[in-house]
Design brief:
280 residues, alpha+beta, Methylamine Dehydrogenase, Chain H, DNA polymerase, domain 1, 2 domains, 5-stranded mixed beta sheet, 7 helices, 35% strand
Length: 280
């Protein structure tokens, strides 16, 4: 590896991302687009209307997803004819993000400094309207809504991990395995969020989690639902660690829970094992 050149900036670059053969750089509350020059990077475009401080930057197609250190996500679109970025969507909930990942064209995942992971999505009809807008949201960006972008993101899922998440990644842990949302924490922990493919499985594990909250209370006496809802209410996420404690319950308690779920204890243990095998 060889150093070609260094480019001085007027602030600390906290985020970098590749974008159409160029590089996006987050400096303070501005997003800059640089092109590779012979002696230094050449600034081609700059967007200065971001909330506080850029923490992470992701890009797909003509869209750029900016994670702010104090004010969650802002979706930008690059219009080549104007050589400018226009904000067309943001989050109404303030989140102090430290990690971000674009899951698809309309969906992003973010982790804040307080240990919560959230998945946000731009509704399909709003996304289609943005793509059909020939101005790329230029005039909508000037109007704004609630002091921000004209469109608001929806929260699909939210879950409190309990320690700061420093990295997010999408991938599979085994050949031919299911795609997961992987996360790493400040204290060295690794975790995975596995999407359910059927409503039946989602309902089953949600009911199992509800019974486990009653029969496997916390050692320190803290309410499980309150813990997983710290800072933001838990939404559309089942706590797999809690469900795994089913095997440690007494036999009579297992039979009681299984009867309420219209299953046998063996069937519940088999479903937990199958779910575990889909991850590792």
């Amino acid at each position: 590896m060889e150093l070609l050149h260094a480019t001085p900036l007027d602030g600390a670059p906290r985020a970098l991302a590749a974008f159409r053969g160029r590089v996006l750089v987050g400096v303070g509350a501005s997003l800059r687009l640089y092109e590779f020059g012979k002696k230094r990077l050449l600034r081609k475009c700059e967007h200065r209307r971001l909330p506080h401080a850029v923490a992470r930057v992701c890009a797909q197609g003509s869209r750029v997803y900016v994670a702010d250190a104090h004010d969650s996500f802002t979706f930008l679109k690059y219009k080549r004819a104007d050589n400018a970025f226009y904000a067309f969507a943001d989050d109404a909930v303030p989140r102090h993000l430290v990690a971000a990942l674009a899951l698809d064209y309309d969906t992003v995942a973010g982790a804040d400094r307080f240990g919560s992971i959230s998945v946000l999505r731009l509704p399909g009809e709003l996304s289609a309207a943005v793509e059909e807008d020939p101005t790329a949201g230029k005039f909508a960006d000037q109007a704004g809504l609630l002091g921000g972008a004209p469109n608001k993101l929806e929260t699909l899922a939210s879950f409190h991990v309990g320690e700061m998440v420093t990295a997010l990644a999408k991938g599979a842990l085994q050949a031919g395995g299911r795609e997961l949302l992987l996360y790493a924490t400040l204290l060295g922990g690794l975790g995975a969020l596995l999407p359910f493919l059927s409503r039946e499985d989602a309902d089953f594990f949600q009911l199992l989690e509800m019974h486990m909250r009653q029969h496997a209370p916390s050692l320190v006496g803290r309410d499980h639902l309150a813990f997983r809802s710290a800072f933001y209410p838990v939404r559309c996420v089942v706590d797999g660690d809690l469900c795994e404690q089913f095997a440690a319950l007494a036999d009579d308690v297992q039979r009681q829970i299984a009867q309420e779920l219209d299953r046998s204890p063996g069937e519940i243990l088999k479903k937990l094992e199958d779910l575990r095998n889909k991850i590792v």
